[in-house]
Amino acid sequence: xxxxxNQVFYRKVFKIAIxxxxxxxxxxxxTVIDTxxxxxxxxxxxxxxxxxxxxxxxxxxxxxGFLSGLxxxxxxxxxxxxxxxxxxxxxxxxxxxxxxxxxxxxxVHFFPQLVIGLYNNGDNLIARQQINYFGVKxxxxxxxxxxxMSITLSLTMxxxxxxxxxxxxxxxxxxxxxNTGLNYLLIQGRFGFPALGVEGAATATVISSSxxxxxxxxxxxxxxxxxxxxxxxxxKNLTKEFIGMIMKKAAPVAINETIWGLGMSAYLMAxxxxxxxxxxxxxISNQIxxxxxxxxxxxxxxxxxxxxxxxxxxxxxxxxxWGIKFTKLSFIAGLLFGATLFATSGLIANAFENVSGHxxxxxxxxxxxxxxYVPVKFVNALQIIGTLRAGxxxxxxxxxxxxxxxLVGVPLAFILSIFTDLPVYIIMGLVNIEELIxxxxxxxRFLSFKWTKNLTID
Length: 458
Fold this sequence. Notes:
The protein is mainly α. The chain is 82% helix and 0% strand. The chain starts with a helix and ends in a 10-residue tail after the last helix.
């Protein structure tokens, strides 16, 4: 690439990736702050909120799968400037997102004990009873945030796909600040507010997510940007042929994220056979990883948008060049963030001073273990979320994600948790071997360049 081409590339990357990174950071901080502030209540409430958060994370992965699959088409239609089709896809995303959220709401709100029971399998009867008690309190309230989250995800997906990334990031900051403030007031009961414990954390999530959704809707209504003037009359153009064409590419993405989300939940279910402390260790470590993950989320999402736009413009040669540069950029970022995680793991673990000493120690070592996998995870995510999906190569991405996870990672997690006495950090280190297998699969596909397709023509 020429010097001018490089300048154009990095200008676009920073324009898209930095706001998305900050937005993802805010979303990750939301869960970390919840966990950190609930840790003051003790190990059992913390484990209960960890389980509730994990199930909510699974719901978001299911929705994100469908919505990011639909986002492929919005990005490419934006490249070809087909506004009516963008509106059509957006309407479909709202229908799917609200439908998924409604199913999860019914399950979680009316059968919370069933959800908690999936993860709460330790030998200590008293611990199981306490986790179940606090988990039911948390889930029955937090479930009211699911519908608002689905609408927010649809709106954010649309804005990002048309390269309007600043405002969603600002709303993420607002949501985190609001949630943190409400947590402070409602968990322990300050300034005359009632001390609601885990119910306070759930209430804060519902209120902050609702406010964020309402602001995003207001922005869409009053915006002068043409693509945001949604023509809901396009609903009648959601023909079987159009939906079938869209879902042919979107369904594998949805299946991919759903099965990946199930895999992450399965890991926590397996760890649940060890102890409540092990659940806390894995959930807190995963949330901290989420903070380091945000940089790659920004890069991968920028790749999906930028490559999708270029493929929509039928500039396949430049899309290939950009794909290579994104891969190098993601690997370098992985090295830097992996080293940072390793160096700061002790400080991070010590910050959770209200959890048990052995949990702190396990968090420290687990984070150091995760640090070695960060560069690999970054490149894997870049290929699956960014390059392969941008060109609609979603079936291969699905199998590359699914097979190592379910044939290697999940079985290992259950075998090692149930039949050995290995520490949780060694178990997590071993199950992540599936990431190395995935790396081989995705890089081989990327270098074949079979993903460079213009879906608006094909």
